[in-house]
Design a protein that fits this description.
The protein is α/β, with parallel strands linked by helices. The chain has 10 helices and 14 strands. The protein has a 6-stranded parallel sheet with strand order 3-2-1-4-5-6, sandwiched between helices. It has a 3-stranded antiparallel sheet with strand order 7-10-11. A 3-stranded antiparallel sheet has the order 12-13-14. Helix 3 packs across helix 10 and helix 4 crosses helix 10. The chain starts with a strand and ends with a helix. The mean pLDDT is 92.
């Protein structure tokens, strides 16, 4: 029996992940953890989801709870709880208040579900990944941030739409910070098996415009509808299903680095990783050009400094 638990289950991302994951029918039980004052709301969410799942004959069990004991035996515990970005805010603006929340929940996971994998979606996700790692005391391969998985999907989508080609033909990746210092790996991007640098000779492709669109994606959506939901929810549920099914796909997630990429240490950043039922099976080496390397190092320094500042504020 595969159980996944979600902290922040009444939030926009948490409840959408629960529903998306339930529809994929790869999980037997989803525990939706809420604060006591939100328990009725999360019960209402489960009733509504059950009605929808019945139309597809899906029998995933949905457990609304405010009791940490119910997360015992979880394969994965997702932390989405936290203060969400508003228009004009940067992800790093959320760092200190959200770190307190992630620190607390990570300690509960260590106590009640010590054999689980912690998946962090709370922003700023790279900083929060390190906070969760240190608070839980878990091996670093079992604490994973959603990182640049969503950014990579977005860039893939932008290329596909601009040149009107099936997205399966686009192979691209974004690494570094999930934020202003994200690094699109354009040097290794291929379309239909053709390196991007050759492909652009034959089509009108606004690379600079695509990258700017990518950097602004979250704020653009927030400014128009108030929050991002479908993209993050699908990216997270896709990541959870990849781990559970042990398919060993390479996804770009936030991992704590000990020199595996460009000798970067003591910081969590988005890097390609082989995902397995045990968490990160391997961090995949990256080939970057000089510009990309410089940007990756800048991202590492920015997130490391922010992480140190947060830890000082939390006195941890």
């Amino acid at each position: 029996m595969v159980k996944v638990s979600i902290f922040g289950s009444t939030g926009t991302i948490g409840k959408n992940v629960a529903f998306t994951l339930a529809r994929e029918d790869t999980v037997d039980e989803i525990v939706m953890v809420a604060r006591p004052q939100s328990l009725d709301k999360v019960k209402g969410e489960t009733y509504d989801m059950y009605d929808a799942l019945a139309a597809r004959d899906i029998d995933c069990k949905l457990t609304p709870t405010c009791d940490f004991n119910d997360i015992a035996g979880s394969a994965i515990v997702l932390i989405t709880a936290g203060i969400h970005r508003e228009k004009g805010m940067k992800r790093l603006d959320l760092a200190v208040p959200n770190a307190k929340i992630v620190d607390y929940y990570s300690r509960q996971v260590a106590k009640y579900a010590p054999d689980s994998i912690i998946l962090v979606a709370t922003n700023p996700v790279d900083v929060m990944t390190t906070i969760a790692l240190e608070a839980s005391g878990f091996d670093k391969m079992r604490v994973i941030g959603v990182g640049n998985h969503l950014d990579s999907l977005r860039l893939k989508n932008y290329f596909s739409r601009q040149i009107n080609i099936n997205s399966s033909e686009v192979h691209t990746r974004v690494v570094g910070e999930h934020g202003d210092n994200m690094v699109p790996l354009l040097s290794s991007t291929t379309i239909g098996g053709i390196p991007l640098k050759y492909f652009v000779e034959y089509v009108d492709l606004d690379i600079r415009g695509l990258v700017q669109q990518l950097r602004n994606a979250g704020n653009t959506i927030i400014s128009k509808k108030g929050a991002t939901e479908y993209g993050p929810a699908y990216a997270i549920s896709n990541l959870i299903s990849t781990i559970i099914t042990d398919t060993h796909r390479v996804l770009t997630v936030s991992c704590y680095l000990d020199g595996e990429v460009e000798n970067v240490e003591d910081v969590s950043l988005g890097v390609p990783a082989v995902m397995s039922k045990k968490g990160v099976a391997m961090i995949v080496p990256i080939h970057m050009n000089d510009i990309e390397k410089k940007s990756f190092i800048k991202a590492a320094n920015t997130i490391r400094d922010a992480t140190y500042e947060v830890k000082e504020n939390l006195d941890i």
